[in-house]
Amino acid sequence: MSNNKLKSEGVNIQSHRLSKKEIEDNFSDLHAPLTQIEALIEADRCYFCYDAPCTKACPSDIDVPGFIQSIRSDNLTGAAEKILSENIFGGMCARDCPTEELCQQACVRNDHEDKPVEIGLLQRYATDSVLDNGVKLFSRKKDTGKSIAVVGAGPAGISCAHRLSVLGHNITVYDAKDKLGGLNEYGIAAYKSTHDFAQQELDYILDIGGINIETGMELGKQITLDDLQKQFDAVFLGCGLGTVNQLNLDNENISGVIDAVEYIANLRQTSNKDELMVGKNIVVVGGGMTAIDIAVQSKLLGAEQVTIAYRRGKNAMAASEYEQALAKKHDVQIQYHLSPKQLISNESNVSAMEFDVMKSHNDGSIKATGESLTLKADVVFKAIGQKLVTEGLADNNLELEKGRIVVDKNRKTSLTKVWAGGDCILDGDNLTVSAVQDGKLAAISINETLTQGA
After folding, report:
1. If 0-12 CB within 10 Å is exposed, 13-18 middle and 19+ buried, where does residue 282 land?
2. Which of 48, 130, 259, 367 would be a feasible disulfide site paired with 80, CB 3.0-4.6 Å?
3. Does the residue 89 lie in any domain?
4. Is residue 309 in some structural domain?
5. Closest-CA residue to 425 (of 441, 449, 408)
């Protein structure tokens, strides 16, 4: 959402209180990259476990001890190849992946007397070396003559497209936006992916060739699933979640009540964060990564008071303990057991939000206590999850459950020629690394299907 739109809606926003340099410093890398000496020292801490619990904990099956051993031998190209052959978005995942809950959580050094090996930073060290220098690690096999449509240019779609291109197939990627990248471009917190890294990584991936890009093409509008199945040998759906859940409050459309996903996308695309306006008292409704990201970035832009209101307890939050701690480190207040009750407005703009105080019970249910709490707010961010736009899907006998696409272990849908992956599938965990794995597994399955008997 642009500043002009915020102004036109009468949002009670104020110019930033921080200098341009302060904001630039605030949005610098969350974790500084390792130097060569730091990387070698950190790599030397790895025990190179035979059973590699870190690899087992990695959703994309990266050989963690293997690539760390290559770093230890100062073979960065070999390290990067081990990473990118399993996860072509290894650079972004090194920045965005919740390593504290996955590979580093599983590290055998992770105990009360020691800390885990910094696997994420080592992965970034290796992958940045080939991305920065344009080292080519992959090439296309002989053209198979097969064509595949990929809907969505996010991590799942591009992962699938790249793997299929390497295998010699011809790919057409359709995306509704004019700029590619999906959540890597529009949804990652700006302090996790700096200096337009998402586009640098995407350019590197697409350099494989054999991938045609069609932008401004939305499923159910400019393109249809029926037509794609007729025109292509296979279809992969990596369309993500196109719309957000609503608070379902009477006056939800008043000025100052903003979709957090849209605002984060706008923040990611602006070249001058110091020109952004920011609320004074901000309430974020939600408990996932989007809630954490918008809350922290609001503080980095200069908001005075930022409160996350979540309807359940701390342990039920989708955001990890690490991310919750990161928010608190930036002076974001997190209040649990608060369920939205009503928005209070001052003329045309939100001025406060009233919540029901909830209580969790042993059976997992939550119930209102009868008490309420009101928080001042000139901006309220909605961050209560997204949902799949089923237009163009529901009328094709595509099996859906709980508003998501049903797939098997190979990411195959109920339709003969259609696979799917990423946030749009049932039981997806909304992680970039999982979306990349979905695309990879679907590509392997599509290739096996198209080459049977060849």
Report:
1. buried
2. 130
3. yes
4. yes
5. 408
